[in-house]
Amino acid sequence: MRVLNLYGVNDLRYDEIGMPERKNTEVLLQVKAVGICGSDIPRVFDKGTYHFPTVIGHEFAGTVVEADNTDLIGRNVAVFPLIPCGECSACQCGRYAQCKQYNYYGSRCNGGMSEYIAVKKENLVFIPEGVSCKEAAMCEPVAVALHAFRKACVGIGNTIVIFGIGPIGLILAQWAKIAGLKNIVLVARNRDKVEFAQRLGFLQTINSSEISVRDYVLSLTNGVGADACIEGTGQSATLEECLLAVRNFGKVVTMGNPVEAITLSQNAYWNILRKEICLVGTWNSSFTEMENDWKDALAAMQCKQLDVLPLITHEFTLEQYKEAFSIMREKKELYCKIMFVIEE
């Protein structure tokens, strides 16, 4: 079968390997669509995976073609990519994102940029009627966005500011719209991204290189500030802007993966103290019976509350991987989500 196999840092190949051997705890999935995550860029070009070669890709969906339970054959599914150990204290209470000995499709074991993959039955999320595999391949960023939004603890009439408007930021804005927030402010430093978000209907999108975020938010809130800010870039300057824009007793949710050391000025630190800001982290998503961001994500897609298709700006075959990755790495044109569509 054909795959995208990472043999080393900056050595990604369109490769042919044998079919995966399915265990009785797994099903064989024919992959229909798989997205390129922003984390795949440093994974391929800078940091590598945990061993080589590794088939990359953790945002994928497809059709079950082989299983011990024949009722599963033909079902379309998305896949929760984190494989918990099931034994540590975090796993015992369903906090799989904090598992100490987890495995992970696409970085610690072979992932979804392949024609077929064997995946654990426990990691399947069944796609409801009316949702395509292409949409379901967006389930991972949709679930991550929902998990972060829930940390913000905001609702009807509130104001949220989202810094960083890639796929997750734009999906998070959709969750805020569903929840009935009054003001949904999106912030970027790129004019093309601002215009893209505005075309999607988020008219309170601003360019922070041209407009003071703090002043803009204060003008919307009668000088009070935002109820919550989402830091989605992993940069010190953006975290400081969050601390300036949020109201007294507000929340700042740190979501962006840091690209370097995060530092704060004395003034920004004073804001945490004097405004008694609640600073909270978010990581991955919930996947339990009590709280399942993945099932909630697919349900929102099914009832058309949430629309991810406009975010998929580019589609490629696996064989076209060089062009797909170069768009993201070189940022030579506007993109949001780039997806490999293996079979319609």
From TrEMBL:
Q: Where is the signal peptide?
A: none
Question: Which molecular-function annotation in GO is an example for this chain?
Answer: metal ion binding
For this protein, the record's SMART domains field holds:
PKS_ER
Against CDD domains, the record matches this protein to: sugar_DH (cd08236)
Record flagged with keyword Transferase: no
Q: Which residues form the Enoyl reductase (ER) domain?
A: 8-334
| Keyword Metal-binding belongs to the record | yes
Q: What is this protein called?
A: L-iditol 2-dehydrogenase
Origin species:
Propionispira arboris
Upper lineage ranks?
Bacteria, Bacillati, Bacillota, Negativicutes, Selenomonadales
